[in-house]
Design goal:
Order of helices and strands of chain A: EHHHHHHHHHHHHHHE
Radius of gyration of chain A: 23 Å
Number of domains of chain B: 1
Helix content of chain A: 55-70%
Order of helices and strands of chain B: HHHHHHHHHHHHH
Shape of chain A: globular
Number of strands of chain A: 2
CATH architecture of chain B: Orthogonal Bundle
CATH class of chain A: Mainly Alpha
Number of strands of chain B: 0
CATH architecture of chain A: Orthogonal Bundle
Helix content of chain B: over 70%
Oligomer: heterodimer
Strand content of chain A: under 5%
Number of helices of chain B: 13
Largest interface: A-B, 43 and 45 residues
Largest sheet of chain A: 2 strands, antiparallel
CATH class of chain B: Mainly Alpha
Structural class of chain A: mainly alpha
Distance between the termini of chain A: 26 Å
Strand order of the largest sheet of chain A: 1-2
Shape of chain B: globular
Strand content of chain B: under 5%
CATH topology of chain A: ABC transporter involved in vitamin B12 uptake, BtuC
Chain lengths: 359, 309
Amino acid sequence: MQFRLEKRREPSKLMTYLTPVAAVVLTMVVGAVIFSAIGYDGIGAVREIFLTPLTNSFKWQDLGVKAAPLIIIGVGLSIAYRANVWNIGAEGQYVMGGLAATGVALATYTMTGWWILPLMFVAGMLGGAAYAAIPALLKTRLNVNEILTSLMLTYASVQLIYYLVRAPWKDPMGMGFPQTRRFAADALLPNIIPTTIVHAGVPIAIIVALIAWFVMSRSVFGYQMKVVGAAPHAARYGGFSENKTIWLAMLVSGGLAGMAGMLEVAGPFQRMVPGFPTNYGFTAIIVAFLGRLNPLGVIFAGIVMAITFVGGEVAQTTIGLSSSATGVFQAMMLFFLLAGDILIRYRIKRVVPVVEARA
Amino acid sequence: MTPELLVAIIVTVVGASTPILIAALGELIVEKSGVLNLGVEGMMLVGAITAFVIVFVTGNHYLAILLAAAAGVATSLIFGFLTLSLSANQTATGLALTIFGTGFSALAGQGYSARPVTLLGPLFPAEIATHPMWRVLFGYSALVYFALIMVVAVWFFLKRTRAGLILRAVGENDLSAHSIGYSVIGVRYLAVMFGGAMAGIAGACFPLLLTPQWAERMTAGRGWIAVALVVFASWKPFRLLAGAYLFGLVVTMELYAKAGGGPLSAIPSELWAALPYLATVVVLVLISIRRDASTNAPACLGKPFLPAN
């Protein structure tokens, strides 16, 4: 029996939504086989990484807290990627958002007031957007590849944290540790569910995704992003400026990454530390793709990815699996997803061997 | 500046630039065939951990380099299968490959950190390189000479051989190359595998040539700098050599600043550490001000090959 690929007349809607689910399932199956083959407890690893975070209700709060930044950054990236703008420096924009918010928190350290958190929120978004503006400027003015510039700036931003927490922003009472002081009470995100670690960033993430979904599916802005990404020539003909789209895509994705940075530093971290960059910006790339570049899909993808993070920590304590196994599972998921993309545009057809007619 | 110091600086510059040069030469061939593989960093990390484990277990440096190349090829085949056989998005697949390589190398390297190995020694016997001046020419390990030979080899292959011509044709106009009977996908598979081998060897440079140990993410973005260098060099091997050495100079300045003393240490060490990345951005800007930069890119770069059956 032979198979061949036949082009579909239209991209398959069913496959668009089915392939991400299939990718997750395949990752669990193949992951279990591969990890067993190289000498780990493969089934145990899959159970702890993918199922324990769901079955153990104590882990649900961790899921929300981990999913929130992934969803916020993933929504921004999905908008940018829709427009064919490849911002992969979200990690750096997240860092700059966190640093900008930290700057506000430290400057207002001796003050009190309800306005401090909103100010940090705005500063975080501006910090991230400003950092994303550099690749946007270079791309629109000089046609410099935004993939490389946004990524290089990420490496530079991490060094900026190291410098700031070692010298000018160092906690004077910190016994020499390179970190800032713990933020004052008015600069910390409130917990929204008592006795848990769930902070205001969790509902904000859902709201951001819903707003983005509405804007992308119902507004001219969303239409412009999609048209420029899918059909640049038609977009130019239709009067949409490509440069303006690049700017919007970069500023929105950078601003959202900066927002996530602010929520993290004012939430779970409570101060700026050298370990602040936790790869949310890179993982959010997978989240955006797994969510099919659709803000609603990104919510689910963010939760799936949060499950693997929380589960990775579980597996570390229960079966001694390195937390880096999580990265392997996440990459595998993206591989399967990308491989499955072909089913959206093609269908698999069975080829019936042609029997020669005899006279 | 004493001659000894000058020699020490030159030797450090050459060492620091070698992995970037090797990886960039591989990526240059990949891109010349019309494929953009952004997974260089991931393939380098797979090469680095492979080389480290092999040299830790067997003590044989050359076997380590060979198997690092093989590991790089194996990793590149994931990319090749997805982008060439299944025509998946090259940008996304390359990113996925880097995420994979980072996770895989960290997993495989678990328990190996802070365990020392020995560096690969100089290729030529020490008697030749007694005088410091001779060290500049004969004091390096085989990896350094390999990188230099490959610059010439890649140039010769592209400009002077029939196979190089076919590779360029596939990268410039895949449909024409296909219609006169060349296997576009086959050529691209070979190019991607070559890129994987070179990235694997480039990764091997980290534990064998630079720091004799394993550390997670020890390639520290050098793979991405290699990708940037290919653009900087306008897809020309000898410009790649110049770019890599320029980059090695920046890294060396950082090392001397960290070692302390002299005017370099007046600047915060973090700025020095950020300098290679900032310099890469500046270099990309400078190159795009010049007109010929983007026009020299292979015409089919990053586009999947979709013949109309």
